[in-house]
Amino acid sequence: MKLLLHTCCGPCTIYPLHVLRQNNYDVYGYFYSANIHPYTECKKRFETLEHYARENDLEIIAPDTYDIENFLQNIVFREKNRCFFCYHARLKATASIAKKGKFDCFSTTLLYSKYQNHQAIRTIGETVEKQMGIPFFYMDFRSGWKEGISESKRLKLYRQQYCGCIYSEKERYFRK
Fold it and tell me: What would the CATH number be for the domain defined by 2-173?
């Protein structure tokens, strides 16, 4: 089966890619970056993902855009619920590319992170599946959290310290 995997970064791709390939999925990556701030952080994440993808024979699809304005306009005054908007935007964009590319299903590396709202991702993925008419592949990849981290360190991949948006950056670094 041909699966389009939303990929947020190289380190979070390691374990899901390994498991999916073990289960005979033909995996392609899709890098969605509209939420990542600042742009230099977005570039670092993409360059790391590209490097990892080359070394692991993973084809990456990446739009030649950086639409941070749209992301911010959609979450302003909804900052406490920003993750739900972000999940939906990423999954819908991935599903759209998957449908156009005649993939069998789509999924996300967000299901690897122990810091993400797993149930929300699953629910939103299933909703997008119904809206877009392409199956959402759900798998809880969190069991490989430590394995993925160890491998990313062994490979000396750039490892970001926050989810991606300006708000998560503030939560990570700002201390009163």
Answer: 3.40.50.620
